[in-house]
Structures are given as structure tokens and as C-alpha cells.
Backbone:
């Protein structure tokens, strides 16, 4: 008997309209995106005793260490308006969301190679699903922050209902940059490691555990911090989650602009290169 060798063909989409096709796919495959997010939450903590609780414990352990180390430096005599631990927690949550969302979105397509080489699924779906999963983890991580605000008397202002706005724009930012990273990572795997280093540096350049009072006399340092797009998300999140106030208009504009621009650019570049991306997986 002669063995018949089967060949798996990748059913490529015939023609794409840049930007339009990708956004249509995001909506058309929303059910798959939901399943991928659920899979991420279940697989990540499979056979774990604490399960999803690790989503809360992980950042809290980091926050506890940083609070012990830095509370004496920044927690006394500083005009934060809230206990330092609340200020610190809000900063760490945003920084963690940005770094984890970016890495997850950028590596999702490579990690899904086994599926993509066997059947046709728009590759960008996996990047968006990874970013949505990171957003879900961020929402769960907000539980201890809100608990701290209540316990320490900071309260929960009405502006808490506006928090989904920076959440959505951060989702757009991480998805867009993630698609750019994915387009490059299939050629150079080092891109993912470089991204980890860069995101860590960017997170140190925003006042997560330190305060702007440290650099208030240095215009160049202040400018370097404020042009960091993540800074606009941090300021907006803090203003709405515990400040009960509106951030500066330029801050909102930078947040919205960076999210929209990153998503549009990422989707456009990926739409022009997606066939080469799949072939090189």
C-alpha cells in the first residue's frame, strides 16, 4: 500500500482592503475573541490552587515590596491627596497593564502558529484577543485598589464610571503596537525581548512609585516624562479612579490620539504584510 502524504494548505483570504477588512474581522470573529479570552483565563491558572486569585495577588505582592521600600521617601510630606499605597497601586496597575498587554499582543500570533498554519483565521484576531485578556486581568486587579481606597478613607468618586475610557484606549494602544511587533517578530525573534526591555524602561519613566516633585526643577526631565504616551493614561486613571476630577484637556487628547493612531498604524501595516507574516511563522 502506497502511503499518501497529505498536504495542509493555508486558505489565504483573496483580497483585503487595508483597515476596513481588519476592523470587519474584529467584529465578525467576536465570538472567537471571547473564546480565546476565556481560554487564556482558564489555561493560565489550570491546576492552580488559587486560580484567578493570582491575578490579584501578583501585583499586590509587587506593590507591597515597593511600598515598604519607598513609602519613607515618597509617602511622607508629599502632596498626593491620597495615602501613598493607593497612589502606588494605581501606578503599578497601569504600568503592568501596558507591559503585559503589549507583550501578549505582540507574541500572540507567533504563539498561535499551530492553528494558523492549518486553517484560515485572521491572524490579527489573536493579537486583539491577547490584549482583551490583559484588559480583563487589569479589571480584576482593580479590586484590591478599590478595597484600599475604602479601607483607608480615600473613597470611590463618581468619576470611577469613566475608567473604561482609558481602558479602551489602552486596549487600542497595545493592540496596535502589538500588531507592529508581530509583523517584525516573525523575521527577528529578538524583537520580543527588545520590547520587554523597552516597556520596562518606559514604565520607569512615568511616576508609578515616584512623584513629579522629584524632577519639577528639570524642564527637560518633565518633558521626557510627559511625552511618554503611557503617562497620559496614568494621569487620567488616577484622576478618575480616586481623584474625582478631570485631567487636563491635553492629557485626554494625547491619550485618545495615541490609542487611535497606534491602532490605525498597526492594523494598516499588518494588513500590508499579513501574508508574509503567516508564511514565515
Residues:
Amino acid at each position: 500500500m502506497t502511503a499518501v502524504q497529505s498536504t495542509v494548505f493555508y486558505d489565504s483570504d483573496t483580497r483585503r482592503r487595508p483597515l476596513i477588512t481588519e476592523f470587519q474581522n474584529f467584529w465578525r470573529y467576536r465570538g472567537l475573541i471571547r473564546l480565546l479570552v476565556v481560554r487564556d483565563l482558564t489555561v493560565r491558572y489550570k491546576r492552580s490552587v488559587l486560580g484567578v486569585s493570582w491575578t490579584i495577588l501578583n501585583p499586590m505582592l509587587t506593590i507591597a515590596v515597593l511600598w515598604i521600600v519607598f513609602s519613607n521617601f515618597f509617602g511622607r510630606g508629599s502632596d498626593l491627596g491620597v495615602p501613598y499605597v493607593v497612589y502606588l497601586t494605581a501606578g503599578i496597575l497601569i504600568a503592568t497593564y501596558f507591559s503585559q498587554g503589549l507583550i501578549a499582543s505582540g507574541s500572540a500570533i507567533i504563539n498561535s502558529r499551530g492553528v494558523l498554519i492549518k486553517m484560515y483565521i485572521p491572524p490579527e484576531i489573536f493579537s486583539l484577543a491577547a490584549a482583551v485578556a490583559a484588559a480583563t486581568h487589569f479589571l480584576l486587579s482593580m479590586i484590591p485598589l478599590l478595597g484600599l481606597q475604602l479601607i483607608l478613607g480615600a473613597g470611590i468618586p463618581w468619576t470611577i464610571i469613566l475608567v473604561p475610557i482609558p481602558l479602551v484606549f489602552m486596549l487600542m494602544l497595545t493592540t496596535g503596537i502589538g500588531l507592529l511587533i508581530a509583523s517584525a517578530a516573525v523575521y527577528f525573534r529578538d524583537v520580543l525581548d527588545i520590547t520587554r526591555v523597552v516597556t520596562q524602561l518606559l514604565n520607569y519613566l512615568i511616576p508609578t512609585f515616584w512623584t513629579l516633585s522629584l524632577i519639577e526643577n528639570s524642564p527637560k526631565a518633565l518633558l521626557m516624562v510627559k511625552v511618554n504616551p503611557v503617562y497620559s493614561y496614568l494621569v487620567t486613571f488616577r484622576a478618575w479612579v480616586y481623584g474625582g476630577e478631570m485631567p487636563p484637556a491635553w492629557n485626554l487628547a494625547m491619550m485618545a490620539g495615541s490609542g487611535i493612531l497606534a491602532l490605525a498604524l498597526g492594523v494598516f501595516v499588518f494588513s500590508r504584510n499579513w501574508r508574509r507574516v503567516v508564511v514565515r511563522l
Observations:
- The chain has a mean pLDDT of 83.
- The CA atoms of residues 183 and 270 lie 6 Å apart.
- The two ends are 34 Å apart (CA to CA).
